[in-house]
Amino acid sequence: MRLHVVTGKGGTGKTTVAAALALALASGGKKVLLVEVEGRQGIAQIFDLPPLPYEERRIAVAPSGGDVYALAIDPEDAMLEYLEMFYGMRRAGRALSKMGVVDFATTIAPGFRDVLVTGKTTEAVRRRNRNGRRVYDAVVLDAPPTGRITRFLNVTQEVAGLARMGPIKNHSDLVSSVVKSPETAVHFVTVLEEMPVQETLDGVAEVRSAGLPPGGIFVNMVRESQLPQSALDQAATGRFDPGELVLGLKAAGLADGAEATALAEALAEEVVEHAHRTELERAERESLAEAGLPSFELPLLADGVDLAGLYELAETIRTQGAA
């Protein structure tokens, strides 16, 4: 795979997973480009960098060597580049930009904005150096949320009413040939909750129906169970005995008498709640399995996602075979 498109419902950690995937793919001496298109400067925040300009620059060294470059695509700059590439009108394009024509054009034809940003991404996928070698071993695209991903990637259909021939149509066809190729994979990020899982399943179905290639499902922020399965089964069926907790608290010298009983009852409620959540997560895993895609699980980081945590997630991705 050369183009990895990462999408997911808001709040699932889509940008974090995209960044970790880029690090994992670059491991071992490769060169990977990480692209964002929503103007949130999420990549800069994750890597603790100042806001990124519209240029490709190295932002991280991957485990075992390798470089991660980043590009924050600005639709206006992408349009100026497009005008220069196809019409030789960069200077005129800047004049149009000052007049607000660029914003006007992308407002009345939102599909054109998507063509610009996906076009810049797929150009990086195709780009070669003077020796004929690919400039990047892989490109990771931090894409829009799941609800918009099919429309975002299905550029040929989106510009059908805008241009039926000429450079715009040819450009969109070229973009589509990359996006729908066997070298592209659309990955989904979710958490083990009902709404994100259902949105993921809907997104997979939409991507498939549009002829786009689904990749894998990244289950993010997974919490490991702290209790043996036997205790969880007892708690889920209402057979958990707080008396065992009382004995344990007394034996450990943590509490005694009425205090031990009260503490044991509070802990028992926590155990029951934990058991129910574990059962719900098991059901959501089974739902995700129905999509028939590879699934990768990333742990919930207790201290949050700092740079060290990002490298930890990258190593988890690599060891699970997702990169």
Automatic annotation (TrEMBL):
InterPro entries: ArsA/GET3_ATPase-like, ATPase_ArsA/GET3, P-loop_NTPase. Coiled coil: none annotated. Pfam families: ArsA_ATPase. Transmembrane segments: none annotated. It comes from the Bacteria. Residues 1-170 form the ArsA/GET3 Anion-transporting ATPase-like domain. This is Arsenical pump-driving ATPase. The lineage of its organism: Bacteria, Bacillati, Actinomycetota, Actinomycetes, Streptosporangiales.
